[in-house]
Amino acid sequence: MMVFCVGAQEDAERGCVPGFQVKKHQVQYDGGFVVGVPLLRVDFNDCAGNEEVRFEVSHPDFEVDEERRLKPRRDVIDSGGVLFIHGQNAHSDDMAQVDIVGAPPRSPQTLREILGLGQLPYRKRRSLLVPPMFVPENQRPPFPRAIGMVISADMQENHVFRLTGRGVDQDPKGVFRIDRLTGEVAVLRALDREEIAIYHLEVSTTDLSGKVVEGPVALEVSVIDQNDNRPIFQEARYAGEVLEGSPTGTTVMTMTAYDADDPSTENAVLRYFITKQSPDKPSPNMFYIDPERGDIVTVISPTLLDRETLPTTQYELEIVAKDMAGSNVGLSGTTTATITITDKNDHAPEFTHSLFQASVDEGSTGVIVNLTVDDRDDPATGAWRAVYSIINGNVGQSFEVQTNPDNNEGMVSVVKPLDYENTAYHTLLIRVENEDPLVPNVGYGPSSTATVHVTVMDVNEGPVFFPDPMLVTKRENVPVGSFVATLNATDPDILQTQSIRFALLDDPAGWLTVNPVKGTVNTTAILDRESSFVHNNMYSAVFIAIDNGSPAATGTGTLVITLEDENDNPPYLYPSVARICEEAKDLNVMVVGGRDKDVFPNADPFKIELGKQPGLEKTWKVTTVNSTHSQVTLLHSLKRANYQLPLLVTDSGVPQLSNSTEIKVQVCTCKKNKMDCSSAWAVRGNLLWLGLALALLSVLYL
């Protein structure tokens, strides 16, 4: 028995191609095959360790044993002229052909039995056999490389194979080809699984004119992954934080890397490691990372994880993610994780001194002393920021304390002026706390309170008027030199003997004078309620009191005089001009009103009447409308002219005052709603002379 190996034995030197390394074998038939005697040894390599490879032979009386030898299960005479061997595992699926030269035809059998179709799980359509094929990515030249074979049981001499689909006649074109005669499929260049993991092709047979004979049948070419992608972290640097004193095993953060390789293989199975910790005190292994999940947890004990005693509050970890489940041959990616130890309020603030001293001038306000504290917690956090309060000694709420946001000091201020003569010394008890509450096992001790002694310094205070303002009432027009009031001013410096002198500071109308020693105020002019210096019947003057201290101090006070009215102003009438149309049927000329600078009861009601000149009552009439106004009416029409009408107005004061006023009445020409008063044919003078002229004419005609 002779065995011939036909095929690409040299392919093994070109790089690993999953499947049978020798696709075709020839065995010489010599009267039959003896049970247990090997015919040949198959060469199968899945390029991944050849684990759990299964072989099936198309003839049921043949098998491939554990040493990969093809041998008969019993003595076989009717072997037929061809055997097919199917090899398969998780990484490869391929078929080899064994031609038995000189063997007689096998007893009549179906084509399915010859090809073993009942056993081999190939996709098929009638007699066209298309097994799945596998190609490792990143293969090196030379190309093309055979990756499998398509078989047609009905192949005729005038039939050829045709391959179509993405990678052949669709983009990316020129990746695969098929031998038209033998059905061998080859890859033409290196593939990248991360670009295309599976190529879906179709195989058919055609006649020489291109007419399809069999097919199309789907051909699936899977690209076998190689570990050609490193794990990648999304960020070059990660940040996390953990509270000081956290229990061992506290999760700080989770690291996640990504690998573009096939997730179903170990090429994308990642493991995480901490390769460096900086600084490495108090322990080089303060943190641990779960190799599979990437969770970083604390290893250091809670007592050592003390922010105030650690050499730094930030630790940098160098994190490595390695594929191939962390094996030495795996690829790795690196990043940095910065972990900040955050503060909790485990230290109470303490005053740097138990007693603080301050002094302040009486009468002044503002900050008098700054209180300093120590707090070992993290600055600029609620565990460090101080809150001050006065818990004793702040009688009258004259003091307050606020936190200086720049340095955390307590600023004690006087908000209400202090009086040396009342109290020369004040003692305040002040407490300091944090914005955030302390942790349960820490409390505020005696150092969280301090005493502040405040000394009030005596200053020469100015005299104080009482009352201020001083209110008095006087009648206007009192004689010059009349007494108005006596000013009252006292010196707050009761512990000193000082004298006070008075002077005028502001007397707008110049009506007053003051005795510098006694403080008596008298008039130097007539007080006039109707003066422009009087507002709402009140006149105000400002006085100054000066003590004889060193230096002298002053105080001011206001005297407000309410002036009672006297009937010293006669009333007057308004308006002073009226107009009426010459041909007017309505003889009402105007409504005239009275005004008076005086006030009730020296003003209205007013009495408005015609002047005393004779004859006026024959032309004019005055009728009262109300207490301040009257209606002036013509008794008959007048010619176009200007007339002077004398009226008399009298107020209601005691004694009454009257005032004679002449009202100018213009009789105008009115046409088409226009009034023309500019070119009167005669200008009439005083109605008094008009009345006298009429009286003289009447005498002459008698």
From TrEMBL:
Membrane-topology descriptor: Lipid-anchor; GPI-anchor
InterPro entries: Cadherin, Cadherin-like_dom, Cadherin-like_sf, Cadherin_CS, Cadherin_pro_dom
Biological process terms in GO annotation: adherens junction organization; calcium-dependent cell-cell adhesion via plasma membrane cell adhesion molecules; cell migration involved in gastrulation; cell morphogenesis; cell-cell adhesion mediated by cadherin; cell-cell junction assembly; convergent extension involved in gastrulation; ectoderm development
An example molecular function term from Gene Ontology annotations: beta-catenin binding
PROSITE patterns xref list: CADHERIN_1, CADHERIN_2
CC annotations in GO: adherens junction; catenin complex; cytoplasm; side of membrane
Signal peptide annotation: none
Occurrences of domain Cadherin (ranges): 135-233, 234-351, 352-465, 466-573, 572-681
CDD domains the record matches: Cadherin_repeat
Top-level taxon of origin: Eukaryota
Predominant place of localization: membrane
SUPFAM superfamilies: Cadherin-like (SSF49313)
Keyword tags: Calcium, Cell adhesion, Cell membrane, Cleavage on pair of basic residues, Cytoplasm, Glycoprotein, GPI-anchor, Lipoprotein, Membrane, Metal-binding, Repeat, Signal
Gene3D superfamilies reported for this sequence: Cadherins (2.60.40.60)
Places the protein is found: Cell membrane; Cytoplasm
Function: Cadherins are calcium-dependent cell adhesion proteins. They preferentially interact with themselves in a homophilic manner in connecting cells; cadherins may thus contribute to the sorting of heterogeneous cell types. May act as a negative regulator of neural cell growth.
Subunit composition and interactions: By contrast to classical cadherins, homodimerization in trans is not mediated by cadherin EC1 domain strand-swapping, but instead through a homophilic adhesive interface which joins two elongated EC1-EC2 domains through a region near their Ca2+-binding sites to form a tetrahedral, X-like shape.
Protein name: Cadherin-13
